[in-house]
Amino acid sequence: MARRRLAIVGGDAAGMSAASSARRRDPELEVVAFERGPYTSYSACGIPYLIGGSVGDAGRLISRSPDGHRANGIDVRTGCEVVAIDLAARTLTARTAAGAESTEPFDELVVATGAEAVTPPIEGAAAIEPARTVDAAERLRAALERGGRAAVVIGGGYIGLEMAEGLTDRGLDVTMIEQADQVMSTLDADMAARVQDAAEAHGIRVLVGARVEEIVRDDAGAPVAVRTARGTFPADHVVVGTGARPAVGVARAAGLEVGDSGALRVDDHQRCPGHDGVFAAGDCAESHHRLLDRPVNIQLGTHANKQGRIAGVNATGGDARFPGVIGTAVSKICRYEVGRTGLSETEAGAAGIAVVSASIEDRTRARYYPGAGPIWVKLVAEPGSGRLLGGQIVGVEGAAKRIDVLATAVWAGLAVDELALLDLSYAPPFSGVYDPLLIAARATAKLT
Amino acid sequence: MARRRLAIVGGDAAGMSAASSARRRDPELEVVAFERGPYTSYSACGIPYLIGGSVGDAGRLISRSPDGHRANGIDVRTGCEVVAIDLAARTLTARTAAGAESTEPFDELVVATGAEAVTPPIEGAAAIEPARTVDAAERLRAALERGGRAAVVIGGGYIGLEMAEGLTDRGLDVTMIEQADQVMSTLDADMAARVQDAAEAHGIRVLVGARVEEIVRDDAGAPVAVRTARGTFPADHVVVGTGARPAVGVARAAGLEVGDSGALRVDDHQRCPGHDGVFAAGDCAESHHRLLDRPVNIQLGTHANKQGRIAGVNATGGDARFPGVIGTAVSKICRYEVGRTGLSETEAGAAGIAVVSASIEDRTRARYYPGAGPIWVKLVAEPGSGRLLGGQIVGVEGAAKRIDVLATAVWAGLAVDELALLDLSYAPPFSGVYDPLLIAARATAKLT
To answer: How many angstroms away from the CA of B20 is the closest CA of chain A?
Structure first.
């Protein structure tokens, strides 16, 4: 009997997690993974630190190389893009960079094609390569090393902010331009304003509510400036961080269903509905949002890894369930750490969910303990029941990982009055005697 | 009609929290607080940092002075010890340092007498003043400033360790002697060994399983050495940190019930059973342990503040409930942070509770991110259900406050397989793509 064959489309977090878990579970299975680029299993989240210089070598972002995966018995085909999938015939068409095409059979399939940068509708923007992969980041770094004094970052989300920080750390004069009225749209405006403060204190020129009109280039085609209605800013380098959309072109053409989020529909086993043995995972797939009770597309490595592993389990006859997401995220932006989970006030409003919310300011350590600094906590709760629906944290070192406490409380359905008396830890190096989360919970409980 | 009068016995965390919450709730109430020492509302937890020098001024440990409380309308009597309580007559006897006694009436009473150091049965130990209060800490610091090159700390709990670290930071040659076979008895031995490593790497000579036989003094009565069966160690200063027992002498003599833990029995409203209008809170009182389902005495500022506030609410006609404790605690010991919550394997064993447990080692940040260091996580769960019963964490900066995530999960009754897929935050400055807690939960789930 021929060996069964699992094909993986995409060799980053979700795809290689699927490949690895399938490999571990079924030593007889043939596992083949197709990756367009030269690398597998790399940390795209680490790219801003590579740009900023705190990570010196791109190789450090690779958690497992193609050869590492091959040594584990996974047939990795790098530089090899899947351009078509025939679900009925159980074959896919792979194309090398040189243009050679081959038809590859599969029994089970995991689609893990990730996301692709959205090019903003700006004159000159299409020529800018998004630094979303390690090899693209290496090209950007090489360009930065060739010279230039000024950079413009288009987009003020967490990636734009991290990139702006990295460029500033390299000594560049950096302008960040965001079309919305605030940075970091995942936060409410009041919390986002503190993040903007940190970016500005770091030396980044931040423009919000500003639309880029043109990327001005010299005769040789190199960028020299970025023009907005509020001025023209010098730009030897332009970085675009205006978000990404799920890369679903091939999967959609093959007949896999795309949801309202723009990502591939999956059930809680990462199965593509109506297609036995076909799975999707990671940035290209939807996730069930436990609070909104609908599918969303949240592109984060943490989901990609979990979903990939679950797809690999289920593709090999297992029964693993992805329990969904609640929108937890954390970033370090200049001197502040930023965390969020669950619903923001803005998100709740957009979803028609009535909430109460309270914000507090406190210190990260006992007031007398060296290194204490500000922390702001905002909680969002259901009126009446007081059920915690979300939280946002901004503050100095030690602030943001507290978001996981709120994530756990949101997940478990705790009410803010219960949270206010929860047995959290205390010692002077870590908080005042009431942890900021307890103080915020108490303030919120008074409103419910 | 005469004003009602609330008397508070003890002017630190629990007592002054009770006084303050009663004051806020009932502006008509007369609130009088009796405190033996000169200070109110101080952070005993900060004393090791005062000794070590990272906190320069004892005044910084005072969160509110007697005059501060008086300005809020609380009649604070410092230097005034309550030596007897007559519950039938609703009076107490207060004695000043000069020996003057007065009889004070009350309608409601909050007993917040804290805890008192246990003097170990060692020759010469009775002469050592425990540095449990700010004024005692000031005397110790003054003695350290007068000279001496070597110190011995008797007791290897978290306070002993913090004091040993502080003394080392002052340049003293420090030996810490612990009778048990491990430091920090609140941890399992495997985790405690890592804490001992950190103490030793900091330059502290750590002896475990060692019994102090004598504190050797010179002719003038000053300590010169500490003798054990395993050697005699120089000691210009001796610090005793061998634990404290609830200070319940006066309350017990008055007829209040003392539980098996040695602390005052209270119900979930901090009421002393059988005595209307009489409350106890803080280190002198029991707390309900939610996992052991029995009363315990855990002396921590976080409980004292919450219980005091609840006593103050209920003493003024309110209805507040203390939900109990799960044994959460955190400390910074030299280069490591240490957290624990719920049941350790040792505690579960002592309570006859069958558990499974798993330990993992990981890094506090993404491996490529600067400043990443080790973190160890140990989880304890119920076999079968997989319900998380406890956790212990040791690691470098950023490690220990994660204990609050485990505390929340224990509190909410989450199972380890659910925890393993929980939507916790990820970014390279804060963890690998799987937070160490998720990795530990997964390892534990495999055993349940």
So the answer is: 15
Task: Give the Cα separation of A382 and A416 in Å (integer).
Answer: 9
Q: Are B29 and B5 in contact (CB under 8 A)?
A: yes
What's the number of CA atoms in the CB half-sphere (13 Å) around residue B295?
Answer: 20
Q: Which residues of A touch B389 (CB under 8 A)?
A: none
Token pair, residue A262, equals: 């723009």
- How big is the CA angle at B18 (ends B16 and B23), to the nearest 5 degrees? 90
Alpha-carbon distance of A448 to A419, in angstroms, equals 13
Q: SS3 of A21, please?
A: helix
Alpha-carbon distance B301 to nearest alpha carbon in chain A (angstroms): 6
ipTM higher than threshold 0.95:
yes
The mean per-residue pLDDT over the stretch A143-167 comes to: 97
Q: What is the pTM assigned to this prediction?
A: 0.97
Q: Do B45 and A435 touch (CB under 8 A)?
A: no
Residue A216's DSSP bridge partners are A225
User: With bands split at pLDDT 50, 70 and 90, how would you rate the model's confidence at A1?
Assistant: low
- Exposure class string for B104-113: b at 16+ Cβ within 10 A, else e: bebebbbbbb
Give the nearest partner residue to A429 out of B303, B332, B414, using CB atoms: B332
Average pLDDT, chain A: 96
What backbone phi and psi angles, to 5 degrees, belong to B252?
-65, -45
Q: Where are the beta strands (DSSP E) in B236-281?
A: 237-240, 244-246, 278-280
| Sheet arrangement for strand A388-395 | A329-333, A336-342, A388-395, A374-381, A356-363
Q: How high is the pLDDT of residue B1?
A: 57
Distances from the Cα of B252 to the Cα of B84, B106, B231, B396, angstroms: 10, 18, 41, 44
Minimum-distance CB partner of A302 among B369, B405, B426: B426
Taking an 8 Å cut-off on Cβ atoms, the answer to whether B404 and A407 are in contact is no
Contact between B423 and A54 using a beta-carbon 8 Å cutoff: no
Q: Closest chain A residue to B330 measured between Cα atoms? A: A425
> What are φ and ψ of residue A425, in 5° steps?
-80, 155
Chain B residues touching residue A405 (CB < 8 angstroms): 404-405, 407-408
Q: Which residues of B are less than 8 Å from A426 in CB distance? A: 45, 300-302, 329-330
Give residue A262's pLDDT band: very low, low, confident or very high (50, 70, 90): very high
- Please, what are the averages of pLDDT over each run of 10 residues along chain B (448 residues)? 90 98 97 96 94 93 95 97 98 96 98 95 89 93 96 97 97 98 98 98 98 94 95 97 96 98 98 98 98 98 98 98 98 98 98 98 96 97 98 97 98 98 97 97 97
Direct distance between the N- and C-terminal alpha carbons of chain A, in angstroms, rounded to an integer: 64
Residue located via tokens 């999938």: A85
Q: Contact B400/A430, CB-based, under 8 Å?
A: yes
Q: Answer whether residue A2 shows pLDDT above 80.
A: no
- In angstroms, rounded to a whole number, what is the distance separating the alpha carbons of residues B87 and A54? 67
Question: Taking a C-beta distance cutoff of 8 angstroms, is the pair A77, A34 a contact?
Answer: yes
DSSP for A135-168, please give it.
Answer: HHHHHHHHHHHT--SEEEEE--SHHHHHHHHHHH
Q: Which of A43, A400, A424 sits opposite B328 (nearest CB)?
A: A424
Q: Which pair of tokens denotes residue B55?
A: 């906190």
Question: Is the CB of residue A410 less than 8 Å from the CB of residue A389?
Answer: yes
Out of B330, B434, B437, closest to residue A305 by CB: B434
Ramachandran sector of residue A231 (left: φ over 0; alpha: ψ -120 to 50; beta: rest): left
- CA A394/CA A376 separation, integer angstroms: 5
Residues of A marked active site are found at 45
| Neighbouring-strand partners of residue B104 | B92
The reply to whether B284 belongs to the active site is: no
Residue B237 contacts residue B164 (beta carbons within 8 Å): no
- pLDDT at residue A124, rounded to an integer: 85
Q: Identify the DSSP state of A410.
A: H
The pLDDT assigned to B2 comes to 74
**pLDDT of B382:** 98
